[in-house]
């Protein structure tokens, strides 16, 4: 088994019209053994930027702690929050710095960029090679199942309600097809004025 699939889990980020969504499943396991059913892989950096980290849980926690530390330092020096693009470059540099003994994680970054709140999503592999797009990105053990559903259901310029419905359907449909992910999901919708967080109840087996 790949070390990236050792703990299971998966994340999706998706863009809408002046909003972005990020979702992850809630299962934390060790191979086929389920340890917890309330472990989201989504972390808040600030009000307009969230990250989802799938892969080895210990490395994901370490990476998250380092990101929080760097963000707090940045906030003290610059007196403002990091934008999603800055967070992306920060994480890419941190991962590339450790390329000879990498963190076994695949981060996704999403948020609203700049004063006009442009939706922004990006992802990277375990050594920080970036990919940026304007529709959706998926990582984790249920990636093969997620791609087909996301490509089928996604459409451009969805409002926040349509975006929630789409990402929820993608998540729940994919959870049915992967034994290493599941036990429900959590969805975060970021808009210019508010943050919406909802839990989805999936199969509990």
UniProtKB/TrEMBL annotation:
Gene Ontology process terms (BP): proteasome-mediated ubiquitin-dependent protein catabolic process
Keyword Cytoplasm among UniProt keywords: yes
Main location as per UniProt: nucleus
Source superkingdom: Eukaryota
Subcellular location: Nucleus
Pfam families: Proteasome
GO cellular component, one term: cytosol
CDD domains: proteasome_beta_type_3
InterPro entries assigned to the protein according to its UniProt record, in alphabetical order: Ntn_hydrolases_N (IPR029055), Proteasome_beta_3 (IPR033811), Proteasome_sua/b (IPR001353), Proteasome_suB-type (IPR023333)
Keywords attached to this entry: Cytoplasm, Nucleus, Proteasome
Keyword Cytoplasm: yes
Name of the protein this chain belongs to: Proteasome subunit beta type 3
Species assigned in the record: Dictyostelium purpureum (Slime mold)
